[in-house]
Each structure stands twice: as C-alpha cells, then as structure tokens.
From TrEMBL:
The gene is birA. It comes from Limosilactobacillus mucosae LM1. Keywords: ATP-binding, Biotin, DNA-binding, Ligase, Nucleotide-binding, Repressor, Transcription, Transcription regulation. InterPro entries: aa-tRNA-synth_II/BPL/LPL, Bifunct_BirA, Biotin_CoA_COase_ligase, BPL_C, BPL_LPL_catalytic, HTH_11, Transcriptional_repressor_C, WH-like_DNA-bd_sf. Acts both as a biotin--[acetyl-CoA-carboxylase] ligase and a repressor. It catalyses: biotin + L-lysyl-[protein] + ATP = N(6)-biotinyl-L-lysyl-[protein] + AMP + diphosphate + H(+). This is Bifunctional ligase/repressor BirA.
C-alpha cells in the first residue's frame, strides 16, 4: 500500500478530524515532506483536504467516485475488484469489454461519475449526468457447468438489496418495487436495474452475469422524454456516493450468495407497487392485461385475467399500473 493509500486509510478513519503532520509521519514512519507530497497528490486526484498551521490536516471527503475509498468503505466485506471512471459510455459496456479478455473468479465492479450512453431495458437511454447519480455495473461470475441462473430471483433479489440500502440511507423516504427491475419513490422512477448474461459459446451457457444499476440521487433537470416519469431521491442533499456505493456492493453480494433461495420475496411483495392492481404487461410484441395478484417463488408476476384464470410471467415489462398520480 502506497503513501496515498495509507494516508487515505487514516483520513477515512478520522474523517472531519484534525491530524498533525508529525502524527501522520510517525504513524507511517516517513518524513513530514513525504506526508506533504502525499497530501498534494491526493488533492490533485480530487480529495478535499484542509490544512492549517498548528492543527495539521483534516479530510473533508471527495465529490468523485474513487475505487480506493469505496474499497475501504466496504470494511473488507467486498472481495472483488473495483474500477472507477469520471466518464464512460456505459458501465455495462465497460463490464462486457472487461469480460472479453478476463475470466474473473470474484465479483468486479465498474462505476462512473457520468455515462454518455447509459441504457436500460430494450436499450432505452438512462440519463446519467455528471455526479448527480450513482451508475455502476457488477460482474457476478457464474460457473458455466452449474444450473442456469434464476434471473427472476436474481433481479428481484438485487432490487431488495438496493431498496434496503436506500431505506437506510434515506429513512424519511418510501421506496417501492415496480416489477421486475425498477424502484419508485413518490410515483417516479428513481432507480433502474438491468441484468444481462454473457455466454460461454462452447457450452452455450451463462459464463457471467452483469447487473447494471442506475440511481437518480440529486438530478434536477431530466430530458423531456423522461421528465414525467423520472425523479430524484434527494435533490437538495449532499450524498457521499462512495459510501453509498460501498454499502450497495456489500448488500448485493450478501443477497447474491443465497438469491436462489428466494428468502427476500416476502419483503419484495410487501413493498410491491403493482400487487392488487390492474396492470398492462408487455411481452415482446404481445401484451397481457390483468390484475397483479402475486409474485411467485421464482420472482414471476402472476396475473389474474377477467375470466378468473391466472398465469405467471417470468419476463416482460409492466407498461401501465392503475395507480393514482403515477406515470408508468
């Protein structure tokens, strides 16, 4: 671990507190000049560090995503690699490019301050402006020889993991799940989740799963095409995105370890915004109109039709929910 990483570790453990240069030098067994150079290097990387004669240094955080900060904030509970960028076309594309030349055995996270071509289901644009949201993709290695992943359970499980962290971070807000992959607040979409699989061509099976997550944290001005539907969680609040990212990575991996058990489904059902409501479900070029009556044990949406029959759908998109004051 280099001087910058060592300094960062100490600063994060003593955030907002003054630490003298002599204390830092003694702790790291290096010169005061090396401390000064390390601090200067951190500042060039965007870390905000206040300095004052007789007091020393005080770490105030950073407004950009930083892999080292996120890794340390996971407190050793995320064992994979973490990569960050100030701007990228899409973290999903970044993850796919990585997989074209790597075969990871541990999870790998890709995060960006901005996406210029972020996308969601059906390739629709996901608006991802600089530093007002959290945009990341997580590669989850999957053994090609094992059973095909239960995508319905994985996506609903990830939604619950993200929802738990959002509720802890923003306790004054209510979040709900729009089957299968969106999180809503006050009738507006604040988070989208996309699950994609890369194929092992020789065995025609899934070699890795890529979960993409986009969260609107403080974005105010949305493009006209999504302005009616999209919303932000806390436009007026300063949010530590590195800390939030660390919490999300840990929470997702905790669910991933047992997602096929479906233990989280009661929680998903309890906060579903579609259950007990008439919906329109689009499946390819077809659509189904009925009342959402359950989320089954595979994460599928169970619709009851006008004639009283029921059917479970494991894929599709809810394009309309009969919910007052909400645009689907």
């Amino acid at each position: 671990m280099g001087t910058k990483d060592e300094l960062l570790k100490i600063f994060l453990l003593n955030e907002q507190q003054w630490i003298s240069g002599s204390q830092l030098a003694e702790r790291l067994k290096i010169s005061r000049e090396s401390i000064w150079k390390g601090v200067a290097a951190m500042r060039r990387q965007g870390h905000q560090i206040e300095s004052q004669r007789a007091l020393g240094y005080r770490y105030l955080g950073t407004d950009h995503l930083d892999a080292a900060v996120i890794k340390m904030q996971t407190r050793g509970e995320f064992n994979g690699e973490i990569h960050t960028a100030s701007s990228i076309d899409s973290t999903q594309n970044w993850a796919k490019q990585y997989l074209s030349s790597h075969q990871p055995s541990q999870p790998v996270a890709f995060l960006a301050d901005q996406q210029t071509a972020g996308y969601g289901r059906r390739g629709r644009q996901f608006y991802s402006p600089q530093k007002t949201g959290l945009y990341f993709s997580l590669v989850l290695p999957h053994n090609p020889m094992s059973a095909l992943p239960k995508i319905g359970l994985l996506t609903t499980g990830v939604a619950v993991a993200v929802g738990r962290v959002l509720k802890q971070t923003f306790p004054d807000h209510d979040f709900s799940y729009k089957w299968v992959n969106d999180i809503y607040m006050n009738g507006h979409k604040v988070c989208g989740i996309l699950t994609e699989a890369t194929l092992e061509l020789e065995s025609a099976s899934s070699a890795a799963l890529i979960v993409g997550i986009g969260i609107n944290l403080s974005t105010v001005d949305f493009p006209a095409a999504v302005a009616q539907k999209a919303g932000s969680i806390a436009p007026e609040q300063t949010i530590d995105r590195n800390q939030l990212a660390a919490r999300l990575l840990v929470a997702i991996m905790n669910v991933y370890g047992e997602y096929d058990s479906g233990k989280f489904l009661p929680e998903y059902r309890a906060h579903s915004m579609v259950l007990k409501r008439p919906v329109v479900l689009k499946i390819g070029n077809d659509k189904a109109v009925g009342k959402a009556v359950d989320i089954d044990d595979q994460g599928g949406l169970v619709l009851e039709f006008a004639d009283g029959t029921k059917k479970s759908f494991i894929s599709g998109e809810v394009t309309k929910v009969d919910l007052p004051g909400m645009t689907s």
